[in-house]
Design goal:
single chain, mainly beta, four-stranded antiparallel sheet, 12% helix, globular
C-alpha cells in the first residue's frame, strides 16, 4: 500500500533534489539507518525507500569503501531491479532487491535496497530528498 500511495504522489521533489545535487562536490558519504546520505557543502542528499507498508522488513546495504568517493562530484544515480532471492520460499515469503548505482567522478558505488515480505507488500518507492545545512555556527 505504501508503494501505491507513493506512486500517486508527484516526482517533483525527486527532480528538485537531483538538480540541486548533480555536479556538486561530495564532502561525505554514508549508508546508515536505511538511508544513503550524500553530503555536499550546502546540503545533504538523502536517498531511501519509503514504500514501507505493514509486514515488511526493508533495509539498505553497501559493501563499497565510501570514503574513496569523497572529493568527487556526483554524476548520476540509477536504480535497477534484480530477480528475487530464491523466489518464493516454503513460507510464501519473498525477498526483493533494487540496486542503487551512484556514479561519481571518482568511480561508482552500489547500494542494495532489500524488501523481505509475505508476497503481498512488494515493490519499492525510492525517493530523493535534500536537507539544507544550517548556516548557524559559521562566521
Amino acid at each position: 500500500m505504501g508503494v501505491m500511495i507513493g506512486m500517486l504522489d508527484g516526482n517533483e521533489e525527486n527532480v528538485d533534489a537531483w538538480k540541486k545535487s548533480q555536479g556538486k562536490k561530495i564532502t561525505g558519504l554514508s549508508v546508515k539507518d536505511d538511508t544513503c546520505r550524500i553530503e555536499f557543502a550546502t546540503h545533504d542528499l538523502l536517498i531511501r525507500d519509503e514504500g514501507q507498508s505493514c509486514c515488511e522488513h526493508r533495509y539498505m546495504v553497501c559493501d563499497d569503501n565510501l570514503a574513496s568517493f569523497i572529493g568527487g562530484t556526483l554524476l548520476a544515480v540509477k536504480i535497477k531491479g534484480a530477480s528475487p532471492i530464491n523466489g518464493h520460499n516454503d513460507c510464501g515469503e519473498r525477498h526483493e532487491i533494487k540496486f542503487l548505482h551512484v556514479k561519481t567522478s571518482k568511480g561508482s558505488f552500489t547500494v542494495s535496497n532489500h524488501n523481505e515480505h509475505n508476497g503481498y507488500y512488494g515493490g519499492f518507492h525510492i525517493i530523493l530528498r535534500t536537507e539544507d545545512k544550517s548556516s548557524s555556527g559559521t562566521a
